[in-house]
Design goal:
The structure is a homotetramer. By secondary structure, chain A is mostly helical. Chain A has nine helices and no strands. Chain A binds a DNA duplex through helix 1.
Chain lengths: ~200, ~200, ~200, ~200
DNA sequence: AATGAATGAGTATTCATTCAT
DNA sequence: GATGAATGAATACTCATTCAT
């Protein structure tokens, strides 16, 4: 038996999940509040019992989508592990989160621009802190001699994040792509590249 | 003096450019035919002189967005250059196209899912052929010994394309990111990775 | 300690006061049951504990608004005072009532037309009896020679009531208009007019 | 045969007339855009071809309602006629305007408070200038010795206007009240009052 | 005495689309 | 090549009302 409070919280999450699913599938403007209601088995107007406006629902879904990303990467950075291990954790966490709550993450990635300016800033802050943290991880690896000295940390961070996010798109469609394999391929690519190393310094 | 036909062609392109810009900025469902008209300085209903429906406009913009991608990569593949050179050409072409006609490419990337099923297939074919061509280029490089034997060609191709496309998003925002630098960084990352190579086979 | 019945009465009045205030401020259709609830610190649905429908609330507020008017003027008329005294009492009572329960009187004046036909008749009866009583007071004054013989009693009654009601509108806004001054000015106007009397019958 | 421009203007006026009628009958919030459309024989959404929002329609109707009042009274004041003549012109003009465009005047009187603050100020300015002009006319009459020295000009002006406006309410309902009679009664009331003058200063 | 969760009907507004001119 | 005037359908949002608890 649930307490009323617990039921309320639960229901609220259900509503946000439905909104996330619908926004992810049809896009913010392509989705109607009726679509959300239909997914919940309630009437159109009833969704307004849970959010003030469609826009607010979008904002909440976006926040649910970024939630945890910054915390995770900053925790990893704080532990200051060797580069390869650090990247493994970051990429595993990132792609793992996409797998775990794909809808809200996709909505964050693709639809956050429809959140009105003022409130969007808060959401974008997360994204920027994430990029920055990864950039710094790379810079530290360069300093320590784990990464090549000529790596452009900022741009590499952006490329890396771009790859992870792109995975969100084809994750479901590619049949033979389990999480581990995606992560492994991605890491190998980022760490060592695809080119066969030429033997160097051999007499 | 232009012939009416020539003038018509030009105007038609202007209309598609306007549609591309508006769809890129607000998304397909977030953009109205009135927005397109406003950008052209004509009235709402007048856009129907140029396209049968908003959906058709989207389709055309998407086709304009993919246009050339497949041709380019297949031409490169046909020339069968060494891996590093081939990738340079592919990435330069890809990112270059994004820079050159950003709006329509972005619309292709983000909005093509709103083209109705039947007509979407044709558009998606381009994407699939592109992926496939890159995959094969990589596979050939493996065979030839230019790339490591354990490279997952399919997934690496998808990651690479994902990175290029992600660049479309931050291209305008990042101040210090000229085309050459983006391409250079990306290529270096893909070919050699970020990790400092350990000396091998040295006695 | 109050009996439950007494507490109930009190609370019921509070609810009607809240409804009156909200209807007066925003108009019947511009006010929501939620506005009434907010003013009481309770939830939307809870107001239905006190009235069956918004319409019924309006009706009650209107009745509270007219309440006393007819009784007062008929009592004055029954006493049959001289014209100037009678008018003083009528006007003082009228404007005084507006000052004392402005909200419900304003709602009666402006919103009673939104009470459905059938139930509105009862409310309108009050208004008509009031007009009639004043008209008769004037007619008696004419008969008695207190008022000019050519006074149009019906219309003058309506004008007089119109003036009193109009005062309800600017009562709050005009800074230097205390009840006594309003009443005095109004009476002087109605009794003697503004024109300086020409000396008559002087040889 | 009308020019297209003329037809456009005409139609626009028809739409505003319809809005005025509907707002006057049911009140701003009680009237729906569908009601306006129905009165015009067009569909609900089509009214938005003529105004941006219901609120804007209200504003326009209010402006149409006050239009001319200030100009008229200021023209009269400029001519500086004797009091009784001046008042006759003012009252005739005022009540005449109410008779001529009753709907929009009533909407101005009763519904202008629903125009949002900022834009309401402009509308209220008209009302204030009107009051002020009448107040000054009375003050001049006092100075000239046409009106009693103890007349409270501000308040009398407000009472007078209140009476005229109140007439708008019962104009249609009272069967035996033609414009001339209303005006005559009102003027007599205001100038001379109802009380039979006592003979003064006669030896 | 009140609430939380809904409903269902309405309502302002937007918008793709049409078509006579 | 374009416009003005509409339409009709969708759609976000409001709100009076109900009712189990």
């Amino acid at each position: 038996m649930r307490t009323p409070a617990a039921r309320g919280k639960k229901r609220e999450e259900e509503i946000l999940d439905a909104a996330a699913a619908v926004f992810a599938e049809r896009g913010y403007h392509g989705a109607s509040t009726g679509d959300i209601a239909a997914r919940l088995g309630i009437r159109q107007g009833s969704v307004y019992y849970y959010f003030r406006s469609k826009e607010q629902a979008l904002e909440r879904v976006c926040l649910a989508g970024v939630q945890g990303f910054v915390e995770r990467i900053e925790a990893i950075a704080a532990a200051d592990p060797p580069l390869s291990e650090g990247l493994r954790e970051v990429v595993t966490g990132h792609v793992g989160a996409i797998v775990a709550r794909r809808d809200s993450v996709i909505v964050f990635l693709r639809e956050r621009r429809h959140v009105p300016r003022a409130r969007r800033r808060r959401i974008n802050t997360h994204a920027r802190r994430y990029e920055r943290a990864l950039e710094i991880m790379l810079a530290r690896a360069v300093t320590r001699g784990e990464a090549r000295a000529d790596v452009d940390c900022r741009m590499t961070a952006l490329h890396l994040i771009g790859m992870c996010n792109a995975a969100a798109v084809w994750l479901g469609r590619e049949p033979d792509a389990p999480l581990e394999r995606i992560v492994a391929t991605l890491l190998r690519l980022v760490l060592d590249g695809v080119a066969k190393p030429v033997k160097r310094k051999s007499p």
